[in-house]
Specification:
The chain has about 350 residues and is an alpha/beta fold. Helices cover about 25% and strands about 25% of the residues. It folds into 2 domains: about 200 residues, Quinone Oxidoreductase, Chain A, domain 1; about 140 residues, NAD(P)-binding Rossmann-like Domain (Rossmann fold, 3-Layer(aba) Sandwich), CATH 3.40.50. Helix 4 crosses helix 5. Bound molecules: zinc ion (2 copies).
Length: about 350
């Protein structure tokens, strides 16, 4: 089968590899859709954000969905033909974090696409417990987007305790930010979406953002304040990983506001006394989602008729992988998806 590898230095290699065999407790999945994510670009450049030096040697792709082709011994709940999305973290299965459904917090975890073979290939093998059942009404492309993109942002938005009187700001309108708009709107909040790229702001408006702003415009902070009638934001999500955005969000939050850090950032500088202590803010990091949250994610998407395919602005065949990663890197796409 064909599989995409990212060995670094912007090289994209399509290699022929053997179709993997499902072991005990594992399933073989025929991949139907697999999304490209901003974190894949760390492999593309050769500086993996997950897995360190161990990363980059596996088949890429941590956001796949597909159809179970065959099951290994000891697989009881899932069967050939089942339509699934896949939880990206392969945990030990028995530690406290795994038993709580947080496979991505397990000390021994492996991440598909980084340190275990991922979904940018015709087939992938994963443990049965990583299978996330999807309804017939959900397309494979939507299912792939429902994991790291929508699932991550839905989980963050829930932790922000949003409701119908909340105003949330979201910085960075790539695929994560766009998914965050949909998640926050699903929870009833009004959303201010910020990005310097005009095309991204227009896309955010089409997704339901109530106000879009260019954060580099001199009057952006004043307009944000005006939108909240001077109160400040109730909540914020940063998807940009950018220091200026971190500070703008912290400055815009009202006392007792909450902020989720979702965009990868190696370091940042903030002003704790003024921004955190005096305002008694709650800041937290949010990363991916608990496996037990997935049925709720599906319920929100189906009950509110949210079609995540809207986020998939570009679809590629696996043979077009080089173009796909280049366009994604150049921010010419929102969600880019390999379809099989
Ligand atoms: Zn991702
Ligand atoms: Zn574990």
């Amino acid at each position: 089968m064909k599989a995409v590898f990212l060995p670094g230095n912007k090289r994209v290699e399509i290699r022929a590899v053997a179709v993997p065999e499902p072991g005990s407790g594992e399933v073989l999945v025929e991949v139907k859709a697999s999304c490209i994510c901003r974190s894949d670009l760390s492999l593309y450049y050769g500086n993996a954000v997950v897995g360190g030096d161990a990363a980059g040697k596996c088949v890429t792709g941590h956001e796949p969905a597909g159809r179970i082709a065959r099951v290994g011994t000891g697989v009881n709940k899932f069967k050939a033909g089942d339509r699934i999305a896949i939880h990206l973290a392969i945990g030990c299965g028995v530690c406290a974090h795994c038993r709580a459904g947080n496979y991505h917090i397990c000390h021994e975890w492996k991440c598909i696409g980084f340190t275990a073979d991922g979904g940018n290939a015709e087939y992938i093998v994963v443990p049965e417990r990583n299978c996330l059942a999807i309804p017939d009404s959900m397309s494979y492309v939507a299912a792939a987007i429902s994991t790291d993109a929508f699932g991550t942002l839905y989980s963050a938005a829930k932790k922000l305790q949003l409701n119908h009187i909340s105003v949330m700001g979201i910085w960075g309108l790539g695929p994560m930010g766009s998914a965050g708009i949909l998640a926050a709107k699903a929870l009833g909040a009004r959303v201010v979406a910020l990005d310097p790229i005009e095309a991204r702001r227009l896309f955010a408006e089409s997704l339901g953002a109530d106000l879009t702003l260019d954060p580099s415009a001199p009057d952006a902070a004043a307009k944000l304040r005006e939108f909240t009638s001077g109160r400040g934001l109730d909540a914020a999500i940063d998807c940009s990983g950018n220091n200026i955005a971190h500070n703008m969000a912290l400055d815009a939050l009202r006392p007792f506001g909450r902020m989720a850090f979702v965009g990868e950032a190696a370091e940042t500088t903030i002003r704790p006394s003024e921004q955190l202590l005096r305002k008694q803010l709650t800041l937290f990091g949010s990363w991916y989602f608990n496996v037990a949250e997935y049925p709720e994610i599906v319920e929100v998407l189906t009950s509110q008729n949210i079609n995540l395919e809207r986020l998939a602005t570009h679809r590629f065949k696996i043979d077009e992988a080089e173009t796909a990663f280049r366009m994604f890197d150049e921010r010419k796409t929102e969600k880019a998806v390999f379809v099989f």
